[in-house]
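Support request, priority: normal
Reporter: lab tech (M.K.)
Component: structure prediction queue

Hi team, I submitted a job for Helix-turn-helix domain-containing protein from Pseudomonas flavocrustae yesterday, and the status page still shows it as pending. I've pasted the exact input below so you can check whether something in the sequence is tripping the parser. The sequence length should be 117 residues. Please let me know if I need to resubmit or if it's stuck on your end.
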Amino acid sequence: MQARALGDRLREERDRLSLTQDELGQIGGVNRNSQGKYEKGERNPDSAYLEAIAAAGVDVLYVLTGKRQPIEETALTKEEQEIVAYLRGMSDYNRESVRRMAFAMAAADGALDSRKS
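Reply from support: The job had stalled in the queue. We restarted it manually and it finished. Here are the results:
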């Protein structure tokens, strides 16, 4: 596995989700320094980290292999499809506001704690 290529794809996914290194690191249960080392190819993430970020929407198959995993429409509930439709109709500014609000709410509920089962 080429660590640099993996790191580049990890950063690409972080950017796609509009997350900072701190935010993705928090989701994965690591600090910003470790997140940066993953993205620079200086370290490889472990399975617990990959599992946690996958739950947050990172395409881990792509990060590891460079191949995208297609999302089937049936993978989203009707409620999730409705939210995505609203989100797609918003301005960039409002999408970013909703993303930050959802992140804060998920963090407050403990949904980003990678140690939770």
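Residues 92-108 form the longest helix (17 residues). The chain has a mean pLDDT of 88. Let us know if anything else looks off. Ticket resolved.
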